[in-house]
Design the sequence.
């Protein structure tokens, strides 16, 4: 279970980094087809690989928390990781489709507010995921904060 959790989490890091690089490509890109293609590829990454990796990391993390001495509500670091994962998974599932759809719909309108919002959305979401995943990794390694009092 630990192996699956680490593998899914590392995969999610890679997918987030890839999405970020692709999203940055849309800025300053004059070719509408490339902008549209980037948004479509980000959608494919998100739906086919990102969601399963994110949900898998969440589920395996829950199984590990209940199946080990750490528990879900025994230590602050575990609870913080859980909350971070919930927020990141929710953001990925709720926000990404809208940004991608707007990006595809407005790819041919450079300079439009809708395209800019979509571009910034698909840049900021993976940045948020990468920050959250780095924080989660640090929490897992250093285990700060002690026990939660009952």
Sequence:
């Amino acid at each position: 279970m630990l192996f699956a959790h680490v593998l899914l989490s590392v995969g999610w890091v890679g997918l987030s980094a890839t999405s970020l690089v692709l999203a940055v490509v849309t800025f300053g890109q004059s070719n509408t087809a490339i902008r549209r293609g980037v948004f479509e590829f980000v959608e494919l990454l998100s739906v086919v690989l990102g969601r399963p990796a994110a949900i898998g990391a969440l589920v395996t993390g829950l199984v590990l928390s209940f199946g080990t001495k750490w528990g879900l509500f025994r230590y602050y670091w575990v609870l913080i990781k859980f909350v971070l994962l919930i927020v990141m998974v929710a953001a990925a599932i709720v926000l990404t489709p809208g940004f991608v759809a707007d990006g595809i719909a407005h790819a041919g309108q450079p300079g439009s507010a809708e395209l800019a919002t979509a571009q910034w959305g698909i840049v900021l979401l993976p940045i948020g995921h990468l920050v959250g995943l780095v924080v989660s990794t640090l929490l897992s390694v250093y285990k700060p904060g002690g026990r939660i009092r009952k």
Observations:
- The mean pLDDT is 94.
- Residues 13 and 133 are 7 Å apart (CA to CA).
